[in-house]
Amino acid sequence: MRQTQITWRAVLIALVLIPFNSFWIVYMETVHYIAHSTNFSLLFHAIFNLTLLLMLNGVLRRISPRLVLRQGELVAIYVMLCIAGTLAGHSMMQILPPTLAAPVGFATPENDWKNLFGHHYPDWLIVTDTKALTGYMATATKQPATLYIEAHIRPWIVPVIAWTALICAFMFVMLCINAIIRKQWTERERLTYPLTQLPYEMANPRSRLFKSRLLWISFTVVTIINILNGLHTFYPVVPSLQLRAYNLGNFFTTKPWDAIGYMALLVRPFLLGLIFLVPLDIAFSCWVFFFFWKAQLVLGEAWGFQKRPEFPEQSAGAYIALCVIAVWTGRHHFSRVIRSVWDRRLAGDSEKEALPYNVAVYGVIAGFLFIVVFCWQAGMTWWGAAIFFALLLMTNIGVTRIRAEVGSPVHDLHFAGPEILMLDAFGTRRVGPRTLSIISLFWFLTRAHYSDPMPHQLEGFRIADRSRMNQRRVFAVMLIAIVVGTVIAFWALLDAGYKHGASWGGEPLGRLNRWLIYPMHPDMYGIGYFSFGLLFGLFVMFMRVRFLWWPLHPAGYAVSSTYGMRDTWFMFFTAWLIKWILLKAGGMKAHRAAIPFFLGMVFADFTIGACWALLGVLLNVRTYGFTAWW
User: Fold this and answer.
1) C-alpha gyration radius of the chain
2) Can you spell out the DSSP letters for 478-547?
3) What residue spans define the domains of the chain?
4) Lowest mean pLDDT segment, chosen from 50-59, 250-259, 394-403
5) 52 within 8 A of 81, measured Cβ to Cβ
6) Closest by CA position to 187, among listed 532, 586, 425, 462
7) pLDDT tens, 76-121?
8) Full-model pTM
9) If you ran DSSP here, which 8-state letter would residue 41 be given?
């Protein structure tokens, strides 16, 4: 079967689009706070760009058909925009530059950060020039400046180079792991990758998606809603059809029921469309386990627990359980992969993969060693760096598994990073102030997991596989997107920071300040919560494999633990109910027939909503945000 080619034209188009999209994301999400593309699993800015390219194709088809972008080119551009977009995302590099400026920029005689932990940072890792930070830390001083003078650019050069090397190494390790797991998850376990359906159908010239009446019906309805809501922002006399989130937690005001907390009744068309693609049993598990977590809060309040039972350790255990389950399920495949390192005959299975398996294993080892040595040179202990990044990779594999099997639109996992588990196990004194100081700079990797690049990488391989593309060329364009996307993200974030001020940096260092002033002993309760989350996730999977009647899935347990589910649980319930009724009434035929209707919701929100978000950035005003949860 003939492969679909990736051309240099497609790579050049992506390289032209990446700076525009990175600046758009940064200004949209951090400056104007209009809409958040990278807070959700399917990135609306990438879908919007793909839509524009399809419209361009329509024009080129009439003028010069030979210039029309082919399927492989569209997929390559889409994948590169996704990878670069995640790097500039809300829970990735948007946090990093302010954190690098904070040890000096936020240090005062009152907080004594300079003597408390400032001396633990090497000069090549952070920005130490106070003159360069005067305008950048403008949130407090209200003195916006510009990046584009030598005195401001020069102090950032070395830290940006150092962190670009670390980020690219970490992304490379993820790529190598994805090259190893792709065949097991895609061909042997046949995971569905629900979130790849819309971009694949858009790029596929043989798709009948855009010929579906149901798609255009839902597209028209949601488009009208978006237009009215957008106009209402400028002209309040125009009626608004946006349904505000209603907090059902307001009904629970007495103890212990008040521990239920925030529980939004929220309706968003794109969420309904995305969740409709989630397998029925997993969608059921998500909203059922959401109430399981809420029940724990009520019981914890009733029993006088001092710690919230769901955050952070139990959630981390739930995600890492998915990694353990994935490794155990594919143990025979992974055993062959490891043995291929010394027995090249076993590497034959990887001829069509992004990398030969033995090369991928070497890549993981070399990349991981580079990261550990980098951290050791920065001041961490080697064992602290190894444990931190091993746990972080396990969490990322868990997130990637959720995306491949569930297609959940949210998987934020707030404040459940490896550093929490390390402190629970060893305490602050054993980990050490230097290691803790460096770990605080990794807040951009651990604060939340909205925009993790790893699942986007694997989904890129999946779309490429369905499009009959050469996986090794896809691997190459992803590497290009990683390097270019990292540099451009730094540029966009520093440009916005100097113009509008930076404020993220105090959050991780405030936490570090508490760790050093109030040392923590090993926390057996925290380890207990983590162990419960891990073991309960494994138990749910055991019951699922052992008994056909068992309706719950461990991925639902993990996803439902995060903040995002407080806003989306009702959408999970609604999509599950609609899907259950369709399957009961009309079977799989009715379900398949309904898919274009729900994809139309996503397509309309993502295109028209993106237009409002782009207009807000161009006009420097706050416009209608279709992703808003408030």
Assistant:
1) 24
2) HHHHHHHHHHHHHHHHHHHHHHH---TTHHHHHHHHHHHHS-----HHHHHHHHHHHHHHHHHHHHHHH-
3) 8-619
4) 250-259
5) no
6) 462
7) 999 999 999 999 998 899 999 999 999 999 999 999 999 999 999 9
8) 0.96
9) S
